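Exercise 7 asks you to align residues with tokens for two separate proteins.
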Amino acid sequence: MVTSIGYSLGAGAGIDTKTLIEDLAKAEKAPKEALIAKRESANTAKISALAQASGAIDSFASALSKLIEGGSLFTQPSVSEPGLLSAKAVAGADIANLSAQIEVRQLAQAQSLVSANLASALAPVGQGTITLTTASGSHDVTIDATNDSLDGLARAINGKNAGVTATVVTDSNGSRLMLKGATGEANGFTLSVPGGTSSGLERFAFGPAVTGGMTAAQTAKDAIVNLDGAEVRRSGNSFSDLIPGVQIDLKKAAVGTIVTLGAERPIEGIRQGITDFVDAYNELQTMLAEATAAATSDKEAGPLRGDSGIRQMQRELARLTTTQLSSTGAYKTLSEIGVATNRDGSLRVDTVKLNAALESDPAAVEGLFNPRQYSSHAAVAVVNKAGTVKPGTYTLTNLLAPVGTGDASGSVGGVAMIGTGDVLRVPTTSPAKGLIVRVDADVASATITIDAGLGGALQAIRDTLRASDGPFAATQERLSKEAKSIATDRESFERRSSAYYERLVTSFGAMDRQVNAFRATQSYLDQQMKIWANSDD
């Protein structure tokens, strides 16, 4: 590049060459720069709008899932003595006819032991072997020079992963070892040392015949309840296998006090849930309409106008009101209970129709939000959490209940299920992955039905749109390629602009030098002419 003082001042030509070159370069560059900037802006707007649409369907599906999982849209148990126990419906269960009486006779508790105080957590405990015996078997805990301390003993016990947790508690009296197992009578445990041990480890022994060892702060107990007069034991205070479809959490034992369980259907909650869904849907619809709007005289077209992914999203959402959400009851779709579509694609609630549906078959209306999962055979029960299995109908065959110490067996769609006791799990390679059933008797064939519900239907739309080979991914890839193409074009454009600027500098520099030469010649001629004129005088 020419950078001489003469060039900068336009000395040769007598004009501001530098400014002229910059003006010419800008005139050449400006329209092309504006075109690329416009492409960049449009691509950025498309990427932003796609992210917004993707996030919106995510938020819509998540908000609906949380609303449904919260339990406010389906029948919940009523409890006459909430200070003694709480009860909650398991998602997917129908407990409309729930009626039970429970007496909480005893809470489950875990065995806990405490040792005598030592001087500190680093005090030696003695070297040798102490055997921890739990429901899972015997576990030898070895103490040697590397871990001979109270802390070392606790770490060694925890390292066995035997279901017993060891901690060291320090106070003004020193440090002591505390051990705690899981709740339930079967989870009691003992600690023993070889006969004649005098290393100090005998201080941490515990068992029926042990003296001078650890002290039992609490014994292991089962929870004991009377359900409609029949005594039942459970290893924990929280369980969902006592009354089908109901999770019970025990709080306090009260022998002689009867807790009555019934059912309460939240009609107002369902009505409000439908209204909230329609409002959220319409907000999403408005956002999509703006992103795909046609151009007008005073406004450009929406950034996603004509995008195939967004068109598919709009089509899928538009079908939501007529999608079958339940396989039982008088009402199986949203449109049947009064959720109608307006001309502009938004939704509205026909309150007259909704009220009539809630009056006629409230269980069916509830079923649209609380999707059922059920078996065609009484000896086969679905035990997995609702929403964990893809909606559909699955046929189980050759189901055999466990015999003796054996496990249950059976197949789903020709694929062998995995048995553990009386429970069968579907392998992850099956379309029914996540399905868990309990088999109480041999059954040649049973059908499991998993309804979608509104949450499942919306989740399916989101999964389709956001799949790795789905329309959103295709649009994202196209926009990414377009962004790279624009960047390449900008780089090429900048090179051409720089080259053009250099050519201008070179050309005007040559012109400057040529004009300067002409002026030198002119000056020489002027001098000669003056000399000739003087000589004539």
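Second protein for Exercise 7:
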Amino acid sequence: MKEYGYIKVGAFVNKLHLGNPKENAKEIIKGLTEGIKKEVAILLTPELSLTGYTCGDMFLQDKLLKESLNALEEIKETTKDKDIIVLVGIPLEIDNELYNCATVLEKGKILGVIPKTFIPNYNEFYEARWFSSSKNLKRNKINLLGEEVPVSTNLLFRENEICFAVEICEDLWTVNPPSNSHAQAGANIIFNLSSSNEGIGKHEYRKNLVSMQSAKTISAYIYASSGPGESSSDILFGGASMIYENGSLLAENKRFTFENNLITADIDIKKLQNDRLKNKSYMANAKLEEYLTIPVFLKDSKKLERVYKEYPFVPSNILERKKRSEEILDIASTALARRLMTLNHSKCVIGMSGGLDSTLAFLIIIRALKKLNRDATDILGITMPGFGTTSRTYDNACNLVKEYGGVLKEISIKEACLVHLKDIGLDENDRSVAYENAQARERTQILMDVANKENGIVIGTGDLSELALGWCTYNGDHMSMYAVNSSIPKTLVRYLVEYVKEEETGKKKEILEDILNTPISPELLPPDKLGNMLQKTESTIGPYVLHDFFLYHFLRYGAEPKKLLYIAINTFKDTFTKEEIKKWLKVFLNRFFTQQFKRNCIPDGVKVGSISLSPRGDLRMPSDMDKTIWTELD
């Protein structure tokens, strides 16, 4: 999986035997063994995992320090023939001072020692009584268990583009955590050995802190804290562990358990690196100190444990989805309202097809007019039945406009199109792209001319997915005077309409329900003898659930085509065959690169999410770019 930029990490909270390094070493070795079975490349343990954090003045006893070294050696020897790196917490005496340290072990060697920098000495913490800050270090190498070992906070452990660094507990809680510098120096994974006690509300604060640091540093942040085996004389440790990637939670354990527990996750390094490349403020004002880079060998796992959402644009949590839907509708309708204010009370002219896209655009217009305290009669909804229009979509288009109080106008395009087809010498029985596009352009001409006549603007209905695929007629439905759906993908359009439907009652709800159940179609080819729709978009260009998945990972994280295929196969293994996914990915890539000329001249339209294809904003791409390297999937 390293080929695609993945590395599997683990956070292990060991069953603690307070003050007994030998027994703690046994528990850590159990975790190490379990981690190997799960193909973990790097395993994190809590702060002072060999002794426990709450040993108090016993940290100053030679016996505990000596037994800690013996326990560390046992773990070190265990790693000799193991393909895993393990981070272990230990108190170490260096030049007459005691340091709270993390040790990095690989293949029977100690690769480095990282001392804690910020030593808490307030409220329930008295750590400065025993430990010194890394700032006190007088040298950068020590002899540890017969090895010359680098000791510093500024250590990077690297294999190619995978690079990790370490900080310890309080380091994270400071105004300027060491991980800020680690990340700018190249670390894309941060490990934190911690001992963080529990208290009302503290766990949520701790999670927010880890999430924010992960997002701020655009890194994976792996956190493991001491468990309830610590002393409970005055405080309790719950054993929280969590894995975040750029602010998103990938894995979290169950706290308050006395037994060993391990969580794992696949970190997407390429995804992190892509975000760093895009963020031109990332390296601003970087003050890079001298870092020592230590090469490591990272085990490659065979199976991707990570689960990707089939609908990356749509929140899976219902409450979050409702909240997101309301925010999107607010953004889109406010943006349109702002444009209408500039145009001095222009009417909104919209082509109503009875499909999802025109329905969503219509609902956004309703909201925009409400924000301006204007009546729905300022919407002119035009239905333009053509050769492929079915009674179902026609009725839904008409009824929707009427129910919301808009002005409905019907203008058939059949006669005009027949004249036009005759003018250009196209047989009316021809079903080529010219036959279809003539209808789309006729409709656009009607909308534009009516808008001029009525002092209005044409509101575009095309969505983000259609723009990505170029599934629009150039200077037909491709064109409008303001495009409210242009950054909303097809899979999200459905949920937004559904959200509005759930807020409605009676006839409005019935109409929206039927629109949601209507197959997606441009309705440019005649229906069958019974009036049933024959032309279905997804039969021609492929399932939108796949195209939106490709679009999200391709543009949001710069995933290369072979990685897109790999994660899509893992994600949709129960829905589509490998051959089907590969086929539609080729369609996506071919259409994406050949249809840029349409995107280079799209109308204004507000960005509502993380992805937009506007040539003025998010995507500057030549129309004549060679697509060869992007379409090589074999």
